[in-house]
Amino acid sequence: MIRKRIKTYLFVLFILVMAFVTACNSKVEENIEYEISKEDMLAEYDVVWNILEENYPYFEMLRKRGVSVNSTKKVFRTFVEKAESFDEYYYIMAQMLNNELKLEGHLCLIDYNIFLK
User: Fold this and answer.
1) Is 101 exposed, middle or buried (0-12, 13-18, 19+ CB in 10 A)?
2) Which helix (H) or strand (E) is 79 found in, with range?
C-alpha cells in the first residue's frame, strides 16, 4: 500500500517537473514588429466603439461614476489619429480601456506578448 502511494507521488512529481521544464524552455520570439496603417488604426478604433456601443452594458454605470463616454471616444480618437506606430496605437487603446473606462465589467486590453508565450 505504501509502495503504491510512493509510486503515485513520484509519478505526479515527475509530471509536474516535466510540465515546468517544458514551460520554461518554450521559445518566445522577442522584438516582433507589427505594422498597421493609419487608416486601419482608425477603422479598427471605430469598429471597437461600434461593438461597445451595441453590446457593452456598463456605459450607464460609467456615466454615474463621472466618466464622459462620448468625450472619451472623441478624445482617444484624436490620439489614434496622431499615432505613428502599432505600439503607440496599442498604448492608446490600453489607456482608454484599462484606465479611462476603468476596467468596468472586465473590459481591458491584455498585453499581446502574453499570447506569444
Assistant:
1) buried
2) helix 69-82
